Predict the structure.
Amino acid sequence: FTDNWCHPNRLEILSFCNSNGVVIDASIPGDIQVLRPIQDGPVAQCRPSNVAYAEVRHIIHFDILEPNEPISPLALVFYIKLPQSTTVRVNGQGNNYQLTTFHGDANLREMEMEAIQATILDITHQDGPYTLSTPGFAQQGTVADSVEISDRIKEQILSKGKEAICDAIFKSLCPSHSANPHSIVETIYQLVKDSNGNCELLSINQYDAKFHGSTATMHF
């Protein structure tokens, strides 16, 4: 997820928001995921001002872990900050107006990852998902936070995939014992010294038997 959190093939755009985090009408008719174009003409047919965030859904699948039991996909919803720039446009009445908004590609899903990195993430200095919260005293616009949501996403991923992750690690470290996991115990040995200082290498079963045998004669 860390490497592909913003990959266009894995994103579904849910809405576009202004700098206050309010959903705005910025999409073409019939496809909420595509922005209206940057063009001259009637304002209602052009991209609106202050398109500042894209609300997206990212679906994580756990099939790569080859779990013993199917794991339902994990849907994560977060925000991508969009860079702002200003150009002069001409409205439907032939009057000039300043348009400050996101001037990038209308369809984020069709962009190459390299282009998203260069034209969006690098400019907004974003290296992970954002969540939006109400601004505090003397702050303007919504507050974008990456720390809280990153921690929450990590917890959700680990909670969903913990069993499969542990199983995959065990299979990788102990491939010959995956069908009979408890047999790995039989390969563990303990080096012990007897009362005469002699060293003896015991299997865990031998050590356990010897330990219990010695304590059985003790009186409390």
